[in-house]
UniProtKB/TrEMBL annotation:
GO terms for molecular function: cyclin-dependent protein serine/threonine kinase activator activity; zinc ion binding. Residues 127-206 form a coiled coil. This is RNA polymerase II transcription factor B subunit 3. It comes from Phialocephala subalpina. It is found in: Nucleus. Keywords: Coiled coil, Metal-binding, Nucleus, Zinc, Zinc-finger. Transmembrane segments: none annotated.
Amino acid sequence: MMRNGSASKGLDSNPSDDICPVCKSNRYLTPTLQFLINPECYHKMCSTCVDRIFTSGPASCPVPYCGKTLRKKGFHKAFFGDLKVERECDIRKRVGAVYNKRQDEFETLLDWNNYLEDVEGLIFDLVEGSKEDRSRAEEKLRAYKERNLGEIEANKRAGLEEVEMEKRRERAEKEAARQRRLAAIKEAEEEKMDVEKSRRDVLEKLASGEGDAREITEMAQKIVLKKAGARKTANESMSNGSRDPDLAIRGLKKKVAPTTEKPYDPFGGIDLTPSRYVLQDNYESEWLQDAKRNQQHTAGGYSFHEYYARTMFEAFSGLGVFIEDEVGNKPAPAAPSNIGTMTAAVAKPKIKQEFKMELDDVF
């Protein structure tokens, strides 16, 4: 299937798009013919018909079965070839001029996303909705604009200020980049001149025989490096001092890096890593040899690693629990002293007899 722009234009082009529906002028006969549209009804007509019908004042749309009142200042040239896309873009601009809140005005990200969802639902009703949906959306848009006119105007001014600040920032960055290029060129030329001057001085000193040749050469290199560092420092301080102080925005919130959301922990942070043993990936067991050779045992998500983990947990469970500590920490029930003495006296012979039986019959 061809995706070429010319091919798709030739296949999808409609001959009626080049004909004015009012005066029937043809673009083929008049190559300079220009079509205009009005956002009230999006009916296309040539510029000659617009001048002829709407110059004297508002008039009804000449397209049959339309009848909407149009004004000449509302006509403009369509940016998109598809008028549906043009209409949706105009609706988005109109709704965006009313629902112009910014994300920093909301307390949470969920509130901001809910606001964007409501705006998209309103745009969808205006673009794709039925006649009742469009009328209901227009009424909602009008009521919101009347109720929040002050906030809308304040947000609009804030948006214009942000755009102007961004333009100034871009101009300042371009000017700073230009200054850096000029400074780099000047620094390269000065460095070249210093190297040339140092070379001449070294040759003169060597020719006169004053001092050691190695010391003269090293000293000349140090002088060249020192001058280059001084120029670099001066250029950096100049570039930092040439910034526009008006571009510094005060009162902004401190930027905090968003915390990465951790996965859900059903155990509430309890560390279940075994501390008395290290679980290995494989254990040699004669009971598992047949199961390891037969792949059917691992069907349905069964894993030998889970078997190893459960077996080791059961084997080591209870090793850290001591009965003496548990009994010692447990408070004894309160009872009268005479009852406790009588109970102990009665139970003492029985305890000795049971203990004797256990000693006589160990197995």
